[in-house]
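Are you able to produce any protein sequence you like plus the matching backbone structure tokens because I've never seen that pairing?
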Amino acid sequence: MKLKPLSIPALILALLLTSCASQPAAIQVAVEPTTVATQAPDVPQASATLDAPPPARSEPVDLYVFAAASLTSAFGDIGRLFEAGHPGTSVVFNFAGSQQLAQQINEGAPADVFASANKKQMDVVIEAGNIVTGTHQTFARNRLVVIYPQDNPAGLTELTDLGKSGLKLVLASKEVPVGQYALDFLDKASADPAFGTSYQDEVIKNVVSYEDNVKAVLTKVALGEADAGIVYTSDISGPNVDKVGRLDIPDSLNIIAAYPIAPVKESQNPELSQAFIDLVLSAEGQSILAKYNFTPIR
């Protein structure tokens, strides 16, 4: 029997069908996922959270910081830095004399952090059970300076002038750390032959008012309501530099104030409290304190 030759299109179709029939069916293979490095092995991969601020809190949080009045400017800057690094958190400051702050905390005022201008008032809160013993740390130091109005109405040129008759002197009350430090300075000076044993009595006679905190002393002198006052060197910083003149107290007579800070035991935000303290103790926090004439601890 004679076969009829295929047409060209039919031949091509037949070849295609034969080719497809000879190929094995596709097989699907499940492959286990593997971790593939996206960087060269000698280049460390950066952490996803490195230098990134923590996520904003779902609900706003207020962090209550009770701080000595002398810390107003420095802690204001530190507070703004803390808020920038902790979205959703607002730092609420209560600045006053350390003795007032200690009393408020012991009476139940809501507080997360206490920064005192002396150890005595910190101990008052510790003894009341509102700060755990051993959790306080010194974060800065300060020293005394005599100030007078820019026009210097009493003509002060040296420390002995504080005992001149008729001088109007303003001090903080002795319950305030800087007030007690001022009395300690006068004690030292009275034991120095250059001043004489009657020096302290002569100076105290010139006191026209005792204030509740150091900022009140600074304000009265800057306004010309007194001829002189004794404050911290940190108070003569920033905009206050041009408001008053100063008489430095030598190291041999000066008092070095140590400032302790601690989390309050009943803090509602213990992690944030510690984070704020850590910032104060950090290089950034210490730099801010130095800018305001505090002596940093590191």
Notes: The chain has two domains: 61-141+258-296, 144-248. DSSP finds nine helices and eleven strands in the chain. The CA atoms of residues 5 and 287 lie 99 Å apart. The two ends are 110 Å apart (CA to CA).
